[in-house]
Amino acid sequence: MPEQSPLALEPIRARAEAATPGPWMAWREYHGPVTAWRICTHDGNREVVAGDEGAIESGDDAEFIAHARSDVPALVGEVERLRGRMREARALLPAADPNCVCCWCLATRRIGEAIAPAAGEGLA
């Protein structure tokens, strides 16, 4: 499988840092036959998307929201790719005797243990 080009993290990081600090929450309000979604900071101190028209109060928040549709799948794809590479690396490790205390077996077991979480093992 060909290596993907690196994901440009700096623009994503800049948008996240410029946006209203989180966490954010969303909830639905009912106004008769009309349903409106609200987004505000988790503590409720600041609405990110305000008003019945859904106006976004901050240009930085608007950029963050607009790019989330492409940033999140790109980040998930990068995590999946890196986990796959870590699984490949772990598969290359020779089998270590679990009872052996020689340097080689100890190092091999420690490397395998370090790679397991990064490979997503045990995660949903």
Please, could you describe this protein's structure?
This protein is an alpha+beta fold. Helices cover 48% and strands 18% of the residues. The protein contains three helices and four strands. It has helices at residues 9-18, 59-92, 103-118, and strands at 24-31, 34-41, 47-50, 55-56. The chain has a four-stranded antiparallel sheet with strand order 1-2-3-4. Helix 1 (9-18) crosses helix 2 (59-92) and helix 2 (59-92) runs antiparallel to helix 3 (103-118). The longest helix is centred in the middle third of the chain and has 34 residues, at 59-92. The two termini are 24 Å apart. 5% of the residues are buried. The mean pLDDT is 82.
Ordered list of secondary-structure elements with their pairings:
Blueprint: H1 9-18, E1 24-31, E2 34-41, E3 47-50, E4 55-56, H2 59-92, H3 103-118
Helix pairs in contact: 1-2, 2-3
Question: Main traits of this protein?
Answer:
124 residues, alpha+beta, 4-stranded antiparallel beta sheet, 4 strands
Sum this structure up briefly.
With 124 residues, the protein is of the alpha+beta class.
**Helix share, percent:** 40-55%
- Structural category: alpha+beta
Backbone shape: elongated
Structural Rg: 22 Å
Largest sheet: 4 strands, antiparallel
Distance between the ends: 24 Å
Q: What's the order of the H and E elements? A: HEEEEHH
**Low-confidence residue ranges:** none
The proportion of strand residues reads 15-25%
Strand runs, count:
4
What does the average pLDDT come to? Answer: 82
- Give the strand line-up of the largest sheet: 1-2-3-4
If helices are DSSP runs of H or I spanning 4 or more residues, what is the number of helices?
3
